Amino acid sequence: MKFNASAVNQVWGTHKTWFLVRTPSRPAAWQLAVIRERLREIRIDGEVAILGSTPEFQDLLSEFEKIQIKIIDRSTDFSKQMGHQRRRNDRTDAIPSLIVGDWTEVLEGMPGRFSAILSDLTSGNIPYTARARHYAAIHSALRDGGVFADRVLTLESPLVSRKSIYAEFGQRPISIESVNELNCRLLFTSDIASGTEELKIAQILETARNEWTSDIGQAYLEALTLITPSNGVWWYGRSWNELRNEHVPLLQEIDNIPEPIGSVYNGFARLIIKRRHDADIITNSDSNKNTVLRCQIAALRSHAAAVLEESKQLIESLPLPDGNLGMAFLQRVVEKAVVFRDDCHRFKMERIRIDTRHWGFMESLFEQIAGLSGVRAKTYAFCWRHQRTDVLFSSSSPEWKSLFVKAIELAAESKITLRALMVTEDEDSERMKALERLQTSIGQNFQIAYIRTADFESTMASDAQSQYKDFGVFGEKAAFLTQEYEPTVVGEYLWAREQVSRLHHLFDRMWDQASKAQKKSSRNIRPLKYWKKKFADLVMVDLKTPVSSVAQIESHGGGAFHLNKKDLQKAFTLCADISTKVEILLRDCIEAALIRSCGDALGAEKLKKFVERSTNGNSPRRSVNRGSTIRECSDIRNQLDKMYFMQEWEFVEKNWQEFNPPLVQGEMRELVKRVNKRPHAHANEALDLAELVVYRDAGRSLENYFSKWRESMDKIRTIKGCP
Amino acid sequence: MAGISHLWGVNGGHDSADALESASRLMQKEHLAAFGIVNREKLGIWTAYFALQDFGEIVILTSAASAHGRCLLPGTQIAMCLFLRTQSWGDPIAGLQAYGEVAITDQVNSEQVYSKRFAEYAAWRREGGQSNAAFYLIRLSALKLVDESRYGEEKFLEIQRIGS
């Protein structure tokens, strides 16, 4: 099908009243929040495309830096109008550029270009016969790791009689809101066009005008053309069950959120976010540049094995099926929530317990320190316990090493001053000498002093800090107290000025009694990169190490593995499997938890009947992990919709006789409240809760490993000129 | 008023900015007016409190189920009569007649405008209000203004919308 610009302009270019269009015909706040979170998660950069000129998406993307926004629209006039609907101004470095043309054709010409493609209800513009090609173009236009966010009309619920819609709206005053609602309900949720797959708006309006002849009916239908162009055509009519497998099948689904209760598209639309994950990376094992890859495969495999093991244990520890409805899971979530809440509480008290996951935080602290003035304000002073047998950085804590590297880089640029108080019995060891040589290369901004362990501990005890292993002070802004290093780094941040100052004095006291490392003669001064290269144990290969330095490290005796392409693919598959399983498990758990919550409201007996009725006739969604028959809460929501006439949230005084004993109004109200709690963010809630469960964290870190690994491989590919 | 005076024309060589200012002052001072419609030879008249969205755009709240409410479809011609309730016989008179049509209303925006003028509205709505009350936006196209203290006895100014 060839793109015909003038025909398109006739429909959309003349549609001048888009400013009257409201949600759900435009993206809603909940939808933007979900997409925003995903885009942040994958850290979009480079080019991002919007199908159509949706102003809300333009506003959303203008929040992100380092991206180029490409609007793909078939009508220049319409796109200009959309620009006027925006609420945010663009930064001068991120003005969206317009590509005029057919979405499919444009995307086909831009393979692997976009880190994200956003679309809102665009699929209805594409004939069913052209969709496979369109979705293939989307897949090819995304780069690996890129996401496609698409809200689609799904036709999952039964169509309602248009006569009932006429009757209802005949009693309602005409307003922008009511016209918008009528537009969605009459065109897409009523039987007015049932049986057809090509909705010609002019024909539908004609039918409606002949049927709905009252003054108000005619006025409503006249107003309807302000929302939907009367000469428009919409491909709609196939159920989602028929279409779901055709919707960009090569992408991996990461979100699938039904339109919430309260929206007129409830049961008729979904927000679907999918991600491109390629498992077909081509690599060459013959180059030592692949060292990064080898290390990362090893890291990935061990991490994946650990996650899998942990997932298995968790799965076994969750007695979800057999009518238990996830009580154990709930308890776990509650426990985690309590811990999290306590942490938050402490955060407000200017103190928070942290672990390895929070290390990114520290780097931003450095940046803050570097931006401050004054010697003391720019000093990072820290104690460092060191045994003769220790390497400087354990391979189990690459974050600590990366923090140190970040610190010495800033010191080398004279942005901060480092003061390392080495707590050791062994200041003459090779490793200490290595550190001193590094100090020499950096100069005045890196100072080292040594203190005996006994002296250190007695001074700590004299200041009532003996429960901590050691500490660091970031300028005058913050301090960190370490509680343990193994198996993971755990400690506390402090922001209270008095406490930070007290630790400053403590550090100064120890620093004064410590012996200072002597400066070496100038002939030993080498650039930083020399030391990175020279001391492989100081700058170990990890996920952040640039490819270029790895080859040098290897030439100085770094480890060697044999790259096996099959292993690589296996690791990939393993990763994807775990990720999917974790995701599904989590969602099941959340659903189970919500159902359990309904059980608290109704009692087990009534809930059982209600769930049976809700799922009657539906095929049960089975948990991939355990074959359980946990039902989706949406089943309950749908059943509530069927049973309950929730016009403007007014509850009809009535008992529900179908059940014995009958459900009373209070119970129904409670049930609605629970399954409808935060309706806009049902999936968000899952994700929020996910932060609190171990396996979700594991899944996240796996994804992080995964994407970093992939970045490195991309670099290798570039170096090697692989296709 | 100077910013929008080019959108309105006034008869008798009067300054349109001045006339609009006078009309606007009246509408600020008085918030109750009478409204009338003719719909398929049916007459309707009622009074309503009103708020100003912009000059020439009036928001009223009234029952959608009432006889007149059912006639308030977009495009319906409507007349409005406003006078200061504090006037005594013999004093210089002040008031206006206005003509326009019902426009498609943005309920959310109208509610904001209305509750800004009538602070008690929010509490009334919170307590349940009247379930079938709805906002209507009336877009005026012409006004007939009398303000004797400003323009002299029995001077009627005709103000027409000439642009949008």
Can you give a write-up of this model?
The complex is a heterodimer of chains A (723) and B (164). Chain A has an 8-stranded mixed beta sheet with strand order 10-16-15-14-11-12-13-17, sandwiched between helices. Chain A is elongated, with a radius of gyration of 31 Å. With 723 residues, chain A is of the alpha/beta class. In chain A, helix 21 runs antiparallel to helix 24 (665-675) and helix 21 (565-602) packs antiparallel against helix 26. The longest helix of chain A has 38 residues, at 565-602. Chain A has 4 domains: 5-156 and 240-275, Rossmann fold (3-Layer(aba) Sandwich), CATH 3.40.50; 162-235, no CATH class; 299-349 and 564-723, no CATH class; 351-495, Endonuclease, Chain A, CATH 3.30.870. Chain A contains 26 helices and 17 strands. Chain A starts with a helix and ends with a helix. In chain A, a hairpin with a 3-residue loop joins strand 14 (470-474) and strand 15. Chain B has 164 residues and is α+β, with helices and mostly antiparallel strands. Chain B has one domain (5-161): Electron Transport, Fmn-binding Protein, Chain A (Pnp Oxidase, Chain A, Roll). Chain B contains 4 helices and 8 strands; from the N terminus they run βαβββββααβαβ. Chain B has a 6-stranded antiparallel β-barrel. The radius of gyration of chain B is 16 Å and the shape is globular. The mean pLDDT of chain B is 88. The interface between A and B is medium-sized, with 16 and 17 residues.
